[in-house]
Amino acid sequence: MTTLVLVEHDRGTLVPATFEALTFARALSDELHAVTIGSIADGLAPELEAYGVTIVHQAHHDLLADYGPDATAEALVSLLTALNPTVLVASGTDRGNEALARVAARLDSPFVANVVLENLDSSGDLWEFTRVRWGGSLHERASLRAAVKLITVALHSLDPTPTAQPGTATPMPFTPDIEPTAAVTVVRDRVERKAGQTLATAAVVVGGGRGVGSPEGFAPLIELAEALGGVVGCSRAVTNNGWRNHTDQVGQTGTRIGADVYFACGISGAIQHWVGASGAKCIIAINTDPAANMVTKADYAVIGDLHEIVPAITAEIQARRG
Amino acid sequence: MCIKRVPAPGARIAVTADGQAVDTTNLGFTMSPHEECALEAALALAEAHAGSVTALTLGPPEAEEQLRYAASLGVRHVVLVLTDGSDCDPQRTAASLTHAVRELESEDGPFDLVLFGNESADSGGFQVGIRVARSLARPMITGAKGLSVADSIARVQREIDGVQEVYSLPLPAVVGVKEGINLPRYPTMKGRLASRKAVVATQNAVGEAGGQAMVGLVAPPEQASHLVVLGEGPSAAGAVADVLAERGLL
Ligand SMILES: Cc1cc2nc3c(=O)[nH]c(=O)nc-3n(C[C@H](O)[C@H](O)[C@H](O)COP(=O)(O)OP(=O)(O)OC[C@H]3O[C@@H](n4cnc5c(N)ncnc54)[C@H](O)[C@@H]3O)c2cc1C
Ligand SMILES: Nc1ncnc2c1ncn2[C@@H]1O[C@H](COP(=O)(O)O)[C@@H](O)[C@H]1O
After folding, report:
1. Nearest to B211 among A15, A109, A245 (CB)
2. Closest CA of chain A from B44, distance in Å
3. pTM
4. Is the pLDDT of residue B221 over 90?
């Protein structure tokens, strides 16, 4: 069985989620091939060796000079036709999902997004496995029958692990057939956002929910976040009310955080919020309701009015720092 | 604009005894926030360009509720593609929606834009809009956080890992929208009254079952509680600071 992994990169810089896809694919078979899109990614081969890749197919084409989802899909279809692997695996990122969905649409083949490795049965023609729904709040057992199985790996559902016996990855350049119409969806313009703390990567997130009550109510939360060098987050109730921008929203349709500490202030802890918050290593809930879901699932809680408690915490931090 | 009726679970999500569906006893129904935002984008574009919006859903007869909600916001035509209510795989969903779009277009000419959510709230397959666009042979970009139309070109903006990308698609085109692109409007009283009179056109689902099938649903195990209550009110601030100090944050 040959497994093929789509290597995701941004203008030649490897996207780390690719290591999750490689780890997943290596568990399915040791005949592990990878494919890089565009000659700008040719230099990635050594990074892939560490994960057990033996052959790197390198797609070269004028239409692959910058990112384009249709051109990517066409390159993949070209390779699938020539190589005929059992499965094509990508990471469950925006680009991974769209690439495989576009391949599937071209082959009129199924595509399954966000699969996890545990309990995957690939012994027969009909595979059976678990995938995540509702952003991870619910698991689905699903079956898949297809000539080439197209699968993305649910993000952060496994630890990326390099192989114990790395070999060498042989580069195999190829020129795919790409329909000229694929040029329509090549990216036209791009702006790199300035580096800095993001909600996804901040070490401390101070989140506020409906209990904050107003846009002004966030002032003490901002002060606490600043005191700890963190950022402010919020629930959908807050964004829906226009109190904060959607870029601050934690959850299924917002951002998944990985903070060391998450303060959840006046947030009830609906499952769609929880799936965004649960990646935090330590959750401190502040809520008037001791039975709120956020409180019962948290590591620590303070019961009471956030408008009194949050400023008191900031004051205590400042006092201890002298 | 394509919307999908889904349950609106709160603090937990329960599965029916046969493991085939979410237990919706005491639950309301809604659509994905991405779709609410796509609907808002559609309405705003229609207002700006003197156009109109049609909403399409594939689902059980009860999905009429989501169509009436769309009508209450100002959607002119609402179309229900009926299924038997069981889980419809992405290939069949896409085939049915494509068929429905073609039927509508054969009467009234092509839509300039067909809008989708980035992913459905419940099954989250990340593909229906992409498949429909391919069948209709129209350019498609998903994940839109910005969408404007001028001179028969749709300008789509999106964010991928700290990079903002811009695409430009000649109409007719297909766009998948992400929450955050706008702030969806609420229905007015007048809109709500009018929506009761909206005529729901119906069609039937078409197409064969695809290669992916749902076997069953399982709620993930609840993690055991390890909650430590630090106290009540502002007097607990010291205990919170201790936790922060333990973690090297002070
Ligand atoms: C498909 C779908 C996707 C969704 N995606 C997201 C998402 O990405 N992110 C998200 O957050 N939500 C999401 N939601 C919405 C989610 O279901 C909840 O509606 C939302 O999270 C509720 O926000 P909240 O906790 O702030 O408000 P509420 O549920 O109203 O909770 C307010 C809390 O504040 C407490 N409180 C009130 N006053 C005070 C006070 N003075 N001091 C302390 N505590 C106080 C209350 O006890 C209560 O627990 C989604 C919903 C759906 C259907
Ligand atoms: N049953 C349905 N009826 C109408 N639109 C749907 C349906 N299922 C999916 N869609 C649309 O396709 C988008 C992507 O869905 P999915 O591929 O399931 O993630 C959704 O956000 C909807 O806009």
Report:
1. A109
2. 17
3. 0.97
4. no
